[in-house]
Predict the structure.
Amino acid sequence: MWWSLSVLALATLTPRVIAQCQPLSSLTFQYQPSLFDGVGARVIQNRLTKPRGIKFDSAPNPNLLVVQAGQGIVALTPNVAGCAGWTKKAIVSNAALNHGLEINGNTLYASSDDQVYAWSYNPSTATVSGNPVTIVRGMSNGAAGHATRTLLLQPASGSEPAYLIVSRGSTDNYDFGCSDANTGRCQIRRFPLSPAPPNGGYAWNSGELLAWGLRNAVGIALDSKVTRVWEVENSSDNIRWKGQDVHNDNPSEELNVVYLAKRGTPNGGNYFGYPSCFTSWGYMNGLQTGDQFSFEMEQGGGGNATRNDAWCSNVSNVMRPSLSFQGHSAPLDIKFYTPPSDTTSALNPQWSGHAFVSFHGSWNRQPPTGYGVVRVPFTNGVPTAPSNSNAGYSFIVQAPDLSKCGAGQCIRPAGLTFDSRGRLLVTSDTTGEIFIVGPPNGLS
Ligand SMILES: *[C@@H]1O[C@H](CO)[C@@H](O)[C@H](O)[C@H]1NC(C)=O
Ligand SMILES: *[C@@H]1O[C@H](CO)[C@@H](O)[C@H](O)[C@H]1NC(C)=O
Ligand SMILES: *[C@@H]1O[C@H](CO)[C@@H](O)[C@H](O)[C@H]1NC(C)=O
């Protein structure tokens, strides 16, 4: 009995690592997307299980680490001898991991709905060693709540330590606890990585509050000067305003900027309004795109009458988005583009500093929207389009027939990352694919 149990335990702890090669020539899109702005795209891996967060490590021939939601982490390595494609191996088996992934040299971070874990990681062998330690704990929103906890490394700078920035969403479509920062939900916090986090990890609410009133800020990215975090927010379904059903186009999804230095406004400059205030898309009843409207009086029984349209519109109370996206686009990741010095196989170098955002796609809109990747032009570190524009971005890749998306016959972009050649890699969770976007002659 004892003997067979320990053999079992050993077998679970040391899974056999099987590296699998997928030749590039064998791969095609399950559902071919349309391509715009002169880009090409090709699948580099398929048959994954819900691939979400992706990131390259620092090995000389970098490995692409991928979170498979509900399974763990795999490493994909290009150009291994004998494989004309990418070689895959599982490196962490943990069914609780679902999206978040970061790498800081020899440390690998990943998240469940409740915890952020860290492993000691060797990029040259793409292996972890030992058990993970908990860095942050106490983030669960319960079984029905938004479950992803996106991770973003803020590198050490001068006397400032490195931080791990973590985003946590709401329990529900409307989560009325979120106008109180102490609930810990609908917000972004950061945690110093040195000195070492306490045993058992930081309690969530002990992290520094960077922003709150964000329904679900799934995508977060630092700007090049590391003074601001940009976040893309997935906003609410089934919204009403002044008794009218306005949900098909409202509220906007948001591109927000979060200042790392606190500003002198009553809410520290970092309250974004959810669930009291929402952002308008289009021009309903005199509101422009980007204007704030109140949801308080639409709730059964009425809400807080002080937080009316005028209160929501006052920038001393609520931060406005830098840019709006079509309601229900479901933005899940954002990455900024820095072209490499050799641009022969890179995306258009004129897109330097532009943001790329994955749109997972809608279910609560007719006709559907999203199901692609967009480019958001930036000029001098801010979106080129004014904040009241609803044309501040354009698709580079999108499913060609959105009417098929409800039946699952479309790409569903989730995680994004750039490679060293200036090409964008994209995970599509429901189709189990990773594809690469670059110039048509730079995809091999
Ligand atoms: C209503 O909102 C105002 C403005 O944020 C706040 O000062 C007040 O405490 C809120 N009232 C209640 C009952 O929560
Ligand atoms: C906006 O809010 C601030 C702070 O509460 C207040 O001082 C100011 O009068 C408000 N502005 C308007 C136009 O209501
Ligand atoms: C995004 O919003 C959609 C509705 O538009 C919702 O069904 C989905 O759960 C949200 N996903 C995330 C990750 O917030």
